[in-house]
Amino acid sequence: MIPKFAVVGHPNKGKSSIVSTLAEDAKVAISRTPGTTTVARSFPLKIDGQLIYELIDTPGFQRPAQVLAWLESHSESATDRAALVKEFVETHRDDLKFHDECELLTPLIEGAGILYVVDGSKPYGAEYETEMQILRWTGQPRMALINLIGDDDHTEQWRRALDQYFSLVRVFDALHSDSNTRLSVLRSFGQIHEPWRESIERAVDIIEAAQVKRLRLSASRVAELLHHVLTAQQRSQLTFNEDASAQQPKLEQRLRDGLRNKEQSMQKQVASIYRHTGSMVEYTDAKALSLDPFAHESESLFGLTKMQLAASGAVSGGIAGTGIDVLLGGASLFTGAAIGAVVGGASAVFGSDKVGKVKVLGQPLATRELVVGPFRDPNLPWVLLGRARLFYRLVAGRNHARRDAIALSAESSDFSAGKIDDDLRRELDRYFAAVRADASKAEPAQLVGWLVQLLGEDSPRA
Amino acid sequence: MLRHLVNIQHWLDNDPLTDWQARLLRDRDIQLSAANESQQDPLAQILSWWQQIGKKYEVEDIGSDVLAFLKWSSIFTGLIGALLGASAAMAVLRYDGSEPISVLVVLSVLVLAPLILLLGSLCLPFVKSDGLLGSLNLGSIIQSVIRARFSHLSAIFQFASVGMEHFLRWRLMSYSQIFGLSFAATALAVLLLKVTLTDLAFAWGTTLDIGPETIYKFLSTFSMPWASAWPPAAPDEALVVASKYYRLGEPSREVSAVALTGWWAFLAASLAFYGILLRGLLLLFSRFKASRALERAFLNHPQSLALLERLNAVAITSTSDESVDESPLKQPSSFVEASSSIDGVACVFLWHKAPGVNQATSPPVFAINREADLIAQKDKISEAVKNASAVRINCKGWEPPLLEFHDFLLALRGLIGAATALVVTPVDETGAESPVDDKNVWRDSLAKLDDPHLYVQ
Predict the structure, then answer these.
(1) Average pLDDT for residues A122-128, to the nearest whole number?
(2) Which of A62, A379, A94 lies closest to B400 in space, CA to CA?
(3) pLDDT tens-digit readout, A45-60
(4) Which of A43, A391, B358, B386 could pair with A23 in a Cys bridge, judged by C-beta atoms 3.0 to 4.6 Å apart?
């Protein structure tokens, strides 16, 4: 039997927020206005199309006292309580007065487990006992979730009351919980009814593996962006007498626009991997992401320092110089590498060639072609990497129930290239230099591996 | 493969689904429906996926255009090679009976020169296709034309992408072999035609002090590959000696015209072996390498990698399939907030034990937890509200108003009459006025009752 869980409770206690977070569905209507949810809505968890469990969002209780009064007036013994709840729903199904109660009780009489939601930031009130008694009458497996909407904490008070009605009570902050907590709460759903345990455990295991996969998928998207910045070119066919310098600014602009589009595309894809729709940048107060990647501020926030730039340039120059040493069979005693490193380092610091090399290709008998790019600015891949890390941090850490702007717990400068572990930075630097030298020899999987490490460290889960 | 690569990448670049999750669900679904043993192989996975995509969507076959263009480029290259081969052969095999044809000249023009070019072309896979050496190649010219012709597919032909550069280099090599192969084949055809239809006399001569022994040694080494299979095509020492020729003539030696015709088999075999067989093998090899490089480029293309990720990722869905009524919630009608000057509060109702009443100084207080409590205290309440201008209802401001509260207000209105003001006062835990946000929730909810004498204070 497929486990079903109905999320029930008082209006405005975060039922829809919990569903939104657990189902990773940012489209669930969430509002301070009581009665926003008017019908029960199912959120089935399917793995490769196979239904594993179902989460059901329900309207809140509106007339619990009247429902309980009806039940008590019709009850003859404790044995008929579950049947009476069913009878109540069948009797009042078309009664608008009890529409919300019928909507929330229907999944329960159909076998759903109960996830009773209260707000632990508000004081306990005896009026809740009416709802809890009705839920107890259904006889369904049940647990309580203490959501924390506000800043105050009345958890202990709630716990004392809830313990009397529910076999399991968990605190769960729908807006701020991390993925570990979400999985832990999900796992506890399986504990309220033994036959459901296996399905829930399986779901948790698969979701856990999917989290790792998400990280890798995101790293792949960032790797694509970095490869793009290191290899992208713009080409234009020239007529035999056409002046290349007239075409050059247009191609440079296209190269820059192409990179901006690529970055936006990466952000959209990463957001989609984490099932966030819309532009995450709109939701965030991380202004650094709104900056142009070519802006000086972006460079100073995310790029390498002058010293690191010099070291980075030395790596690229050294690789080029080593080529000369190899050609000379080492007879140059690695002078080529040394000179290359010095020249590379100096040009990285003082060079102003941001767009990259420009060349005209062509044969006397065939077409001529103006080629612009790839970008030569050694800081650009680092800037993009820093921005990608910041974006990832925002997306991966954001719960789907949130409708507010994200306040970053870390400074944007925490994502600067200079703060990456020295060994890893050197590896990345060498990789960037190698891709620039000959992209066909690059191993994207290696880059993805390093990015998984970096993003994993950035992840709020870590 | 190239056709698939172009078509698939072009389709993926213009994928009608833009959202990554939507793509994942579609592609994973295709993968699961087509799952079989070959699905372990990434290439097979992509091709199988492509087959299904072809059934679901209308796909553009641009790959055929590219393929057709390459085919015609090959034919064009072959034709130029053939034309040059025929011209060169006609030129070096020109014979009017006055002077024998120089074997060494024929060998140099038709076999040795292309052989040197062949050795040069072996470097092509190791040089950049748009570098100096690459640019000198006819294939490079064709490649430039391809870029111009298919500039809208530039994303697919990202020349810097992994594997694509290798593919293009081997493609250059392949064009070279087509050119060389057709050159040699036509030259051989001209030779055979001339041998069959005319009488040709061959000899050899050199200004250098090189004797027949040296020439024989060279030629026997040169013809070693076919000497055992076709002995007449390997010149013997007697023929070499007999064919030594000075245009000024050596009166002491008589040269037999018949002996001088014996060279054609050697030349034919040289062309067949070095011109056709070697080039043919290299053509096959370069095509094989190009195909491998293309496969690598295909699988390493960012779009292919992303597709493979989607095909092999577990598709987890947990969003609702059910649509919801997106119509906005009923807007509350205009609502008058009570001014603090409402006087004459006759009694106070405490809804669900709301705080905020000083029992010593306040008017009569009624605790109400449900509508039934109102009915139970009906007489006392009627007495308390007689001639009153207002009654106050304290409620927990942090809790939202339920419809149960609306029911209570309606019942109370029935009890106290239409003119008496009902002042609902949301309070916080200490009994003080609730924050504005909480009050707004109450105000919006109670506005739905459309009661002109209902206020939120």
Answers:
(1) 91
(2) A62
(3) 999 889 999 999 999 9
(4) A43
CA dihedral A248, A251, A255, A258 (to 10 degrees): 170
Name the packing angle between helices A194-231 and B302-312 (round to 10°): 180
A24 in B contact zone (CB under 8 Å): yes
Question: What is the distance between the alpha carbons of residues A106 and A376, in angstroms, rounded to a whole number?
Answer: 64
Give the pLDDT confidence score for residue B329 in this predicted structure. 44
Grouping H, G, I as helix, E, B as strand and the rest as coil, residue A168 is strand
**Contact yes or no for B402 and A63 at CB 8 A:** yes
A166 contacts A90 by C-beta, under 8 angstroms:
no
The beta-carbon neighbor of A33 closest among B158, B315, B444 is B444
Name the amino acid, one letter, at A230. L
Nearest to A229 by CA among A375, A359, A383: A375
**Given an 8 Å threshold on Cβ–Cβ distance, is B144 in contact with A44?**
no
Amino acid (one-letter) located at A425: R
Convert A63-100 to b/e letters by CB count within 10 Å (16 or more is b): bbbbbbebbeeeeeeeeebeebbbebbeebeeeeebbb
What spatial distance separates the first Cα and last Cα of chain B, rounded to whole Å?
76
Taking each helix axis as running N to C, give the angle between helix A380-396 and helix A444-458, from 0 to 180 degrees, rounded to the nearest 10.
50
Nearest to B144 among A38, A97, A369 (CB): A369
Q: How many angstroms separate the CA atoms of B170 and B164, rounded?
A: 10
Contact A137, A143 (CB under 8 A): no
- Tokens for B314, please give them: 């577990």
Instruction: Provide ipTM, 2 decimals.
Output: 0.76
Torsions phi, psi for B347 (to 5 deg) = -155, 165
Specify the pTM.
0.77
Whether A43 sits inside 8 A of B318 (CB atoms) is yes
Q: Which residues of chain A lie closer than 8 angstroms to B324, CB-CB?
A: 29, 39, 41
Number of alpha carbons in the 13 Å side-chain half-sphere of residue B9 = 25
Q: In sequence order, which residues have a C-beta less than 8 Å from that of residue B92 and are 6 or more positions away?
A: B101, B105, B106, B109, B110
Q: Are A430 and A315 spatial neighbours (Cβ–Cβ below 8 Å)? A: yes
B350 strand-pairing partners? B367, B394
Closest to A259 (Cα-Cα) out of A298, A223, A279, A230: A230
Which residues, in sequence order, are bridge partners of residue A361? A369
Rounded to the nearest angstrom, the gap between the alpha carbon of residue A72 and the centroid of all alpha carbons in its chain is 48
Of A61, A210, A439, the CB nearest to B161: A439
A206 touches chain B (CB under 8 A): yes
Residues contacting residue A61 through CB under 8 Å, at least 6 positions apart: A8, A9, A10, A11, A67, A100, A101, A104, A130, A131, A134, B402
How sure is the predictor about B154, in pLDDT bands with cuts at 50, 70 and 90? low
Give the count of alpha carbons within 13 A of B234, CB side only: 14
- Please name the amino acid found at residue B60: E
Alpha-carbon distance of A346 to A57, in angstroms, equals 62
CB contact under 8 A, A48 and B401: no
Contact criterion met (CB below 8 Å) for A400 and A276: yes
B355 CB-near residues (< 8 Å, 6+ apart):
B394, B427, B429, B430, B431
